[in-house]
Amino acid sequence: MIEPSHYISKTVKDLKPSGIRKFFDLAASMEGVISLGVGEPDFVTPWSVREASILSLEQGFTSYTANAGLLELREEIAYYLQGKAKVSYNPKEQVLVTVGASQALDVALRAIVNPGDEVIVIEPSFVSYSSLISLAGGVPVSVQTSGEMEFKLQPAELEKAITEKTKAIILCSPSNPTGTVLEHEELVKIAEIIEKHDLLVISDEIYAELTYDHEYTSFVSIEGMAERTILVSGFSKGFAMTGWRLGYIAAHKDFLSEMLKIHQYSMMCAPTMAQYAAIEAMKNGREDVLYMKKKYKQRRNLVVSALNEMDLTCHVPGGAFYVFPSIKKTNLTSEEFAEQLLLEEKVAVVPGNVFGDSGEGYIRCSYASSLEQLQEALRRMQRFVENKI
Ligand code: PMP
C-alpha cells in the first residue's frame, strides 16, 4: 500500500481548496435553493454563436488549430481590443487564444515568475490569483481594500506593499467579487506607481463588457502601460460562454512568445469548435451582449436598493454581476451568515472571507439570475435579516 500524500508536491499540498465549493456542495444537496453563489451568467450563449460552432463541426473542422489560435479569431480579438482598449495589437505576434481566462492567468504568471518573486493581489480578490501565483513558484502578497472606500485600491497601500522582490501586480476591474470599477483617473494613479517601481501588471479584464455607469477604461489604455501589461480577458462573462472555455491574452510580443511556449507544451491550442464560436461572437455578438448588459443593470439596481433597505449596506458596483454587502449589522461572521441563510432560508451566497481578510463582514451575491428569482431571494433574505438584527 502506498501513501499517496507522501508523493504530492508541497506546493500543491499547501494550496487551500476554494472556499466557494463548500457552499455549492451543501446547496446542491438541498431542494428549493436559490443560488446567488455562482459567478456565471444565467443566459445561454447566443444562438448565432452556438450555430457557428455547430457549422464548424458539420464542415469537419475538428483538428488542432495554430498553437496561438485561429488567425481569424486573433484578428477579430485585435480589432475588438483596438476599439475597447484603445491599443493596437498585432494579431500574429501579440495575441494568444487560451482555454478560458483561467489558463491565460496561469500562463501569464508562469511566464514571468521566478521562485520567490512577489506578486501583489488586491483583496477581496478572485480566489484563483493567490493559488496560481503559488503554483508558479511565486509569493502572493495581499493588499487590502475597504468597504468604506468601495473596495478601491488606494495607491498609498499599493506602494507600501512593494518590495525589491515585487515582480507584478494583478488588477481586476470590474472586480470579482466586489463589482468595483476603477475609473480612468484612479488607474492613472496606479500606473504612476507601477512605472516608478518598474513593475508588470496582469490586468484581468474578463468583465470589461459588463460596466453600467461609465465608459470602460482598460488599464492598457493608460499611457505607458500597454508594454508592461499582460491583458487577460475572455468570452465567459460578457458573451455568456463559460462552458466553452475560451479566453485570450494580449501583450508585448516578447512576453507573448514566451507564454506561447508554455501554452504549446501544456495545451497545444484552445478547443477548435469554441474558437469558431468566438469568431462569430466577436463579429456579430454585440446586440446580444448589450441585451444581457441591460438586464444585468436592471437586476443590479433592484438588488442594491433592496439590500440597502434591509440594512445590508453596499455601494453601487459599477460592473460585473456581483454585489458585496456588509452583514456587520447582524453580528454574524460571513461564514455564519452564509451557512445560516442557506439552512434557514435556502438562499446560497458566498461568505466574503473566502476572497481575503478584508472580505470578512461581507457576502458576495451574484445577480446573474432572473428578476423573479432575485425578488424571491431578497424576500427570504429580508426575513432572515429581520430575525438576526
Ligand atoms: N477572472 C475572474 C475575475 C473571474 O471571475 C473568472 C471566472 N469566475 C475568471 C477569471 C475565469 O474565467 P474563465 O471562465 O474565462 O476561465
TrEMBL record:
Top-level class of the enzyme under EC nomenclature: transferase
Record key words, sorted: Aminotransferase, Pyridoxal phosphate, Transferase
Needed co-factor(s): pyridoxal 5'-phosphate
InterPro entries: Aminotransferase_I/II_large (IPR004839), AspAT/PAT-like (IPR050596), NHTrfase_class1_PyrdxlP-BS (IPR004838), PyrdxlP-dep_Trfase (IPR015424), PyrdxlP-dep_Trfase_major (IPR015421), PyrdxlP-dep_Trfase_small (IPR015422)
EC number: 2.6.1.-
Residues annotated as domain Aminotransferase class I/classII large: 32-380
GO molecular function terms attached to this record: pyridoxal phosphate binding; transaminase activity
One Pfam family per UniProt: Aminotran_1_2
Gene3D superfamilies referenced in this protein's UniProt entry, alphabetically: Aspartate Aminotransferase, domain 1, Type I PLP-dependent aspartate aminotransferase-like (Major domain)
Gene Ontology biological process terms from the UniProt entry: amino acid metabolic process
Family: Belongs to the class-I pyridoxal-phosphate-dependent aminotransferase family.
Record's protein name: Aminotransferase
